[in-house]
Amino acid sequence: MKIKRLLCLALVPIIVLMVSCSGDSGTGHQSSFADSDSHPVQEVVINSNFLPGITEFEFEAISQATGIKISTTNYLIDEFFIKILAGDSDVDIYFVRPTEIRLLCEQGIYYPFESEIISDFNDRCFDYLKDCCDVEGQTVYMPISNSVTAVLMPKAAIEETGMEYSDIEYLDGYLEFARNYSGSRTAFTNGSTLFSLLENQYEHFVCDFENNEFDYITPEYLNLYESLLGGYLRYAQEPGAPAGFTHSLAQNGACHSDNVLMTIGSYDSYQDYNDSSYGNGTYNAYGKSVFFEKWRAFPLPKISDKVSGNPTSNLFAMINPYSENKEAAVKVLEEIASNYYVYGDYYTSYSFLFEDKSDYPEKYHPESEIFSDFYDIVKNGYINKYVIFTSHPDIEEYQNGRATLEEAVAMYQREVEMWLNE
């Protein structure tokens, strides 16, 4: 594969779930974590997947436990590939996503773990996560996080409407349910996020990028495109929301169980779902109990009966094969594997990795209905290793009336063809 194709990953940030942030500086912003009393004699550099100040784990605590100094950097995806293709050794652990895993494996760039602790940790994870970590029978990656975006509904709204899952199982039913509702509640969504997640369904279950077989000029994709992207700029509806919905980005006012018909969200955003009002249309996150007691979760609507799983957002750890500190890097990952919930930070604090429900701590409220909902959704998850990175200029052309539906989708078809052939 050409290096050019590897570097094209930098064109557009990953849109998922949901859900993730990339570093905004490729200058190698570095933060260090060390226990000043233990005088660590080894150092490990981790390339974080997030903005400076937002981390996957409590690295200072890990440093104290291991006696290993930990520093983090925030290289962007294109810089990451430049460095690893050049054999740079200054980063010891990279946190990567499935698309990068596929590209690295195609280049034969990986380093097998020789750690029983990490192998045992991976064995506890859902099969699709574990499978993603193995290359030619060797353990090469370690799952760091796993999450999904789901349709969220207050129990009171379910009781009021008599809604059953079959009513919203497919996209057309999901949209009609909101549009036909005549009560006082509001259906919220983020149209661009939902479109990206359902487009992911199409590209995973309908397209075959590995064999260069894909076609977007189909009834399924045309319906998805028109249903979620049609009209709201041209006809002055609220930007970002298909007809029948109100756009929700910052969740202000979109999480009060007395006001909401349905919305979309993830398990780690529990603090947004509360019933404490400031009195000005926004709501104060005063505690967790409302989310776990008053809400239910359902899988995202399917675009067709070809869909048999739910899109997940994942992060994996890998050892840089060119690192000069492999032994220390393995020790750091072993400490995380041994005490995963002790060190979980911003992005990993409510991750769903494990097959056994008993592995989840009390903070997950494993006795709640919504925990079981999310667990079942995640268990039936899938990993899409072919995420298309294009700027999707066709959407603006379509929404502003400069292209018909068919013309816009044909434009995207050409974009994908060019992307895959680079």
Automatic annotation (TrEMBL):
Domain of life: Bacteria
Coiled coil residues, start to end: 395-422
Signal peptide from the UniProt entry: 1-23
Name this protein carries in UniProt: Carbohydrate ABC transporter substrate-binding protein
Organism: Candidatus Faeciplasma gallinarum
Record key words, sorted: Coiled coil, Signal
